[in-house]
Design goal:
Helix content is 36%, strand content 25%. It has 120 residues and is α+β, with helices and mostly antiparallel strands.
Length: 120
């Protein structure tokens, strides 16, 4: 069994998994200074329920393969907003309209950065 990855490594694994399935507008928020529940929140958009479900599935598979524990997955039934809890990294995969309505980036007040696999 793999050793559990640190939050930075897990962030990179998640971003890569999202990019593999063509997620749109991936934003990584460093929330370490805002909350004790996670180090990073990642928000991404999928164009359909089928894509959001595929994105969530790929994130969980890649995270497990990297040695991370999946704490929970919520919202898979409807597919318009799926939350994947990886402990130190929380992933929100949303339809664009749902994402615009809830605007998590502004709600958290974190300084979001557009994700790239090798971003610092």
């Amino acid at each position: 069994m793999n050793e559990a990855p640190n939050s930075e490594t897990l962030r990179q694994v998640v971003v890569a998994a999202l990019e593999d399935i063509k997620a749109k507008d991936i934003v990584v928020m460093d929330v370490k200074h805002l909350t004790a529940i996670a180090d990073f929140m990642i928000v991404a958009s999928g164009e359909s329920a089928r894509q959001t479900k595929a994105l969530a599935r790929n994130v969980t598979e890649k995270a497990k393969a990297a040695g991370a524990q999946v704490m929970g997955v919520e919202g898979e039934e409807a597919g318009d907003w799926i939350l994947v809890d990886l402990g130190s990294v929380i992933v929100h995969i949303m339809h664009p309209a749902v994402r615009a309505y809830y605007n998590l980036e502004e709600l958290w007040g974190a300084s979001p950065s557009r994700a790239r696999r090798n971003a610092p």
